[in-house]
Amino acid sequence: MGRVSHVRAAGTMRIAIITPAPPDSRYGNRITAVRWARILRRLRNRVSISQMYDGKPYDLLVALHARKSHSSIINFRRHNPSAPIIVALTGTDLYRDIRTNQRAQESLEVADRIVVLQPKAMEELAQYDPNLVVGILGGGAGTTYDAFRLIHDAQSGTT
């Protein structure tokens, strides 16, 4: 896990968020993608949400669901070899796929950072790979915003 030095100055990034959930759905992955996009836009980034990577250049890919976003993760890496990839693990990833599904496992290997949305996920990840270092991003809108704000402030040198 490296490549994070590629990231532009705070507030100028082009970010793609990939979610398997269709645009009008009420699935948790879509709600999370929309929430994160709103937060990242408030921090002056340009953000798109889609179900598949569209082949355009981005500074960062955020993929929700390691298994279902696998082809987007691999295609993004081919088109943007130095840009970072963040994989946010969903419940299905954690409690089933990372143990048994090669596509989910490969997504974790390609990721520069892995994000989980719940503290219990640490136990599952420790069973999968005890050497992983994982960030826990709060599921609530306020906590998630605070986490993104800290990242923004760190990048801009205001902390």
What topology emerges from the helices and strands here?
Layout: E1 14-18, H1 28-42, E2 46-50, E3 60-64, H2 70-79, E4 85-88, H3 91-100, H4 102-110, E5 113-116, H5 121-128, E6 135-136, H6 141-156
Parallel strand pairs: 1-2, 1-3, 3-4, 4-5, 5-6
Helix pairs in contact: 1-6, 2-4, 3-4, 3-5
Describe this structure in words.
Mean pLDDT is 79; it is low at 1-7. Helix 1 (28-42) packs parallel to helix 6 and helix 3 (91-100) crosses helix 4. Helix content is 43%, strand content 16%. It starts with 13 loop residues before the first strand and ends with a helix. The protein has a single domain (4-156), classed as Glycogen Phosphorylase B (Rossmann fold). A six-stranded parallel beta sheet has the order 2-1-3-4-5-6, with helices on both faces. With 159 residues, the chain is an alpha/beta fold. It is built from six helices and six strands; from the N terminus they run E-H-E-E-H-E-H-H-E-H-E-H. Strand 3, helix 2 (70-79) and strand 4 (85-88) form a beta-alpha-beta unit.
Oligomeric status: single chain
User: CATH homologous superfamily - what is it?
Assistant: Glycogen Phosphorylase B
Number of distinct beta strands = 6
Major beta sheet, strand line-up: 2-1-3-4-5-6
From the 3D coordinates, which CATH architecture would you assign?
3-Layer(aba) Sandwich
Which stretches are poorly predicted, pLDDT < 50 over at least 5 residues? 1-7
- CATH topology-level name: Rossmann fold
Main sheet makeup: 6 strands, parallel
Number of helices: 6
Sheet/helix structural class = alpha/beta
SSE run:
EHEEHEHHEHEH
Distance between the termini: 25 Å
Q: What would CATH call the class?
A: Alpha Beta
Q: Mean pLDDT, as a whole number?
A: 79
Give the overall shape: globular
What is the gyration radius calculated from CA atoms? 15 Å
Helix content percent band: 40-55%
Number of domains: 1
Strand content: 15-25%
